[in-house]
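Input chain follows. Return structure tokens only.
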Amino acid sequence: MSEHDDRARSSLLGRGSPVRTVVLVLVAYAVLGAAAGFVWERLWTPPGQVIVQHHLLYDSYASLRQVFAGTGLYVLVGAVASALLALGVTVLVRGRELLVLVTVVVGSAIGAALMWRVGTLLGPDDPAGLVARTAGRATVQGNLTVAGKSPFLVWPMTSLFVLALIYFAWPTSFGPHDGPDTRLADHPEAEARQSPPG
């Protein structure tokens, strides 16, 4: 077993097989994504809406702003959750940088999807389905949504940024080819001293 493998196994999440590391990281992203969805829904205030003559309207400008607040909170909560988890994974798993990179990309996508799914499930139902069935006037709450596709990129982008920052600031002091032969080749004088006189 090489020195590279020994140091990889010495890290907390790096112990055991690479499959175990991948599973633990993916599960961590899934759990934190679901928890972030819960926090996202708790922090958000549903916008007030009214149904008038089969038309869905917002009851005030403040309620209209809450629609954009849902997307903003998704970005904020997702960025914090993704950064904290990526920081933990990067620090706890050393010596398997390429494996961590691929796993974090997949895990962050899972976390982003679960955050959206849990948050929207906990929030109010979409009132658009009530418009056709409501003949008079009715007061409803708007549903929790994310505007556009770009907010979903906050999870992978934040995770990759943290990985790059940590790997740059705290690089591993060894490589996969570091070994006795490599070190001797870099220092020919030491190799000459160790070789017997002929």
